[in-house]
Specification:
The structure is a single chain. The chain has 408 residues and is of the alpha/beta class. It folds into two domains: 33-229 and 329-406, Rossmann fold (3-Layer(aba) Sandwich), CATH 3.40.50.1820; 235-326, 434 Repressor (Amino-terminal Domain) (Orthogonal Bundle), CATH 1.10.260.130. The protein is 35% helix and 20% strand. It is built from twelve helices and 13 strands. The strands form three sheets. A nine-stranded mixed beta sheet has the order 3-4-5-9-6-10-11-12-13, sandwiched between helices. The chain has a two-stranded antiparallel sheet with strand order 1-2. Strand 4 (60-70) and strand 5 (76-86) form a beta hairpin. Helix 5 (250-261) packs across helix 7. The chain is globular. It starts with 5 loop residues before the first strand and ends with a helix. GO terms for molecular function: triacylglycerol lipase activity.
Length: 408
């Protein structure tokens, strides 16, 4: 496994890949093509229940790709993902479409990458210990069954060297857009073949970011539709909502990612966190979704700060950090294709109001937005039940929306 750069509250401790990892697929070569969407390398990837060595198995043939994307400053970044060419034919209009799926919150450590978990959606490493889960299968298999090519993104820093920049608006959006480019090139598809984006929660934010960045960052793509479920469009609202829930540790994912890219955030984190907070952030940087639940469920970030304030309150005291959080806000740009946007009225992780505001912001710019409200009543709040149930309820309508737009 390639060791990630670990974010430490008192500063950055950089751990370079070990010599034993030099031949690992996730270690980028010393030089690679700088053009976004370029394929750096690829290898076959088994899927769940497939027999190794047998060609043309259902639901498709998968390849793990390393491809070029961009860091937020525009410099080339090597990242990874998985493209699956379906065995089912595309029976709709035009060329076979491609949907890039952004995974929801699955972690920050290298072992959490979705491309590592395509043969079996769960991995348990007792040496760490760590529990990694890939739950992109429902939308992936549904799309493949309908003859749609699927690309599942890992995001920048997930699997590859460096910290995964969780909910970074530009880097997650870039990874999705360049994943589409790489998928088309890898499959030999026409450059103007239809493209869509899909995701829920973190994946919904990545899909929403890709949707609004497409016209400026990837005007070459023929984007036709986006499904964005429960996107964390406004981190200033989301951080406070997640505090004290079963996935409170996800706040650490966000802080670690921001610390890695913004020196002003690093400085504030170093100053404002106590020893427990620094240790928590360091530990979280090497954890997956299952790990943070076991380690930090229902904890409050008040325990991480020197003043006993929540991290949300600390952010509100520092205008320079507020500016960084505001940079991650989705909704300032116009999607260039229709969007199916969903928000849970009582979502206990992703506040409904900031999703509704995203719909308002996009519509004010003339975007074609179908906004759906999931009415699930409050159930065991702070346990993320009210976040998971809407995901299941919206999956099929979201996929059908994409298929309908491809057939226009």
């Amino acid at each position: 496994m390639v060791t990630s750069s670990v974010v430490v509250g008192a500063g950055l401790a950089l751990a370079a890949p070990s010599a034993s990892a030099a031949g690992d697929f996730y270690t980028p070569p010393s030089t690679f093509a700088a053009q976004p969407g370029s394929i750096i390398k690829s290898e076959p990837s088994p899927l769940l229940l497939q027999i190794p060595g047998v060609a043309n198995q259902w639901p498709g043939t998968a390849k793990r790709l390393m491809y070029t994307s961009s860091y937020q400053d525009g410099k080339p970044a090597a990242t990874t993902g998985t493209v699956i060419e379906p065995t089912a034919p595309w029976r709709g209009k035009g060329s076979r479409p491609t949907v890039v799926v952004g995974p929801g919150t699955i972690g920050q450590a290298d072992q959490c990458a979705a491309s590592r978990l395509m043969a079996f959606p769960m991995s348990v490493d007792i040496t760490k210990p760590s529990v990694a889960v890939n739950y992109t299968a429902p939308e992936m298999y549904y799309l493949l069954t309908n003859g749609v090519r699927v690309f599942v993104a890992d995001y920048i820093g997930m699997g590859t060297p460096g910290i995964h920049t969780y909910v970074n608006r530009r880097e997650t959006g870039y990874a999705m857009l360049d994943g589409a480019r790489a998928a088309l090139r890898s499959s030999g598809a026409p450059a103007d073949a239809p493209v869509g984006f899909a995701g829920y929660s973190q994946g919904g934010g990545a899909a929403a970011s890709a949707a609004e960045l497409a016209q400026t960052y990837a005007p070459d793509l023929n984007v036709r539709a986006t499904y964005a479920g429960a996107p964390p469009a406004d981190l200033s609202k989301v951080i406070d909502a997640i505090d004290g829930t079963t996935i409170a540790g996800a706040i650490g994912f966000a802080i670690n990612g921001l610390t890695a890219r913004y020196p002003v955030v690093q400085k504030v984190v170093q100053t404002e966190t106590n020893a427990a907070g620094k240790a928590a952030l360091r530990k979280i940087s090497q954890q997956c979704i299952g790990d943070i639940i076991l380690s930090f469920a229902f904890q409050n970030t008040r325990n991480w700060t020197r003043t006993g304030e929540s991290l949300s309150a600390v952010i509100n005291r520092h205008p320079e950090v507020q500016e960084v959080v505001a940079e991650q806000r989705i909704g300032h740009l116009k999607p260039n294709a229709p969007v199916f946007l969903e928000g849970g009225l009582h979502d206990d992780v992703i506040p409904y109001g900031q999703v509704a505001q995203l719909a308002t912001d996009w519509r004010a710019q003339g975007a074609d937005v179908r906004f759906v409200t999931n009415p699930t009543p409050p159930i065991l709040t702070k346990t993320i039940v009210n976040h998971v149930v809407p995901m299941l309820a919206t999956l099929l309508p979201g996929m059908e929306f994409l298929l309908a737009e491809f057939n226009r």
